[in-house]
């Protein structure tokens, strides 16, 4: 039985099954990347809710695993060399799990890096820009008199959707017929943009037909449907 007692995070979130991968998360667009991935690859795991309403992400125990204070993060008792591996940043976790299991990342070296480039596209563009649209359209930023920040992020979100649209035209997934971590990284963000953020009309989402069809295909996957609700909110 693996001993995870050296990791302070297990004091606040005890591992009932320390032999399983431990996931610390919340069902946000970033958080669900990893729960969807774990559901897709069928790797057993134990999930722990990091409640932002209680500032769990700011506690010393959580910061010991992720000093950036963001979700998701994992603790894999069966990491490289058989040693426990703590890991944060959703993109890094997706790549780690794909390489650990040999799933959802092309074996061909060139295609592998092409898939990874789209994950970085999401991490550097889709997530930050869509998140800012949400802040300035739905949350506190909506009350700002100066609408230039909202206009700036809406414009950039539309540009990014255009990049996705051009690439997905004639393709089922970002890597043609292969569903990969590139798709997983983006599904929750696009869903959030037009759903929870209510910004579909704002970014004129209906004009991005290929993106819309890709989103429908992704959301129809049973593993995606499960992963979008893991962990359960309080």
Question: What is the topological layout?
Answer:
Blueprint: H1 9-12, E1 21-25, H2 31-41, E2 45-49, H3 60-65, E3 73-76, E4 85-88, H4 90-101, H5 109-137, H6 148-168, H7 181-194, H8 209-219, H9 222-227
Parallel strand pairs: 1-2
Antiparallel strand pairs: 1-3, 3-4
Helix pairs in contact: 2-4, 2-7, 5-6, 5-7, 6-8
Can you give a write-up of this model?
There is one protein chain. The chain is built from 9 helices and 4 strands; from the N terminus they run H-E-H-E-H-E-E-H-H-H-H-H-H. By secondary structure, the protein is of the alpha+beta class. The chain has a 4-stranded mixed beta sheet, covered by helices on one side. The protein starts with 8 loop residues before the first helix and ends in a 7-residue tail after the last helix. The mean pLDDT is 97. This is Glutathione S-transferase N-terminal domain-containing protein. Belongs to the GST superfamily.
């Amino acid at each position: 039985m693996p001993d995870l007692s050296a990791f302070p995070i297990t004091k606040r979130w005890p591992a009932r099954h320390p032999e399983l991968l431990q996931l610390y998360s919340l069902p946000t667009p970033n958080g669900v990347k990893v729960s969807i991935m774990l559901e897709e690859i069928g790797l057993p795991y134990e999930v722990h809710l990091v409640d932002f309403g209680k500032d769990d992400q700011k506690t010393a125990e959580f910061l010991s695993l992720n000093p950036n204070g963001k979700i998701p993060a994992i603790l894999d008792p069966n990491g490289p060399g058989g040693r426990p591996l703590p890991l944060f940043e959703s993109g890094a976790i997706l790549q780690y799990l794909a390489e650990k299991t040999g799933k959802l990342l092309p074996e061909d070296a060139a295609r592998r890096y092409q898939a990874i480039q789209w994950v970085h596209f999401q991490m550097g563009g889709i997530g930050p820009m869509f998140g800012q649209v949400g802040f300035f359209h739905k949350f506190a930023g909506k009350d700002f008199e100066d609408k230039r920040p909202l206009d700036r992020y809406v414009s950039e979100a539309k540009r990014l959707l255009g990049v996705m649209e051009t690439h997905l035209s004639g393709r089922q997934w970002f890597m043609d017929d292969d569903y990969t971590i590139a798709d997983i990284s983006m599904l929750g963000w696009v869903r959030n943009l037009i759903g929870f953020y209510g910004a579909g009309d704002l970014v004129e989402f209906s004009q991005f037909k290929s993106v819309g069809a890709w989103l429908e295909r992704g959301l129809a996957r049973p593993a995606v449907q499960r992963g979008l609700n893991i962990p359960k909110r309080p």
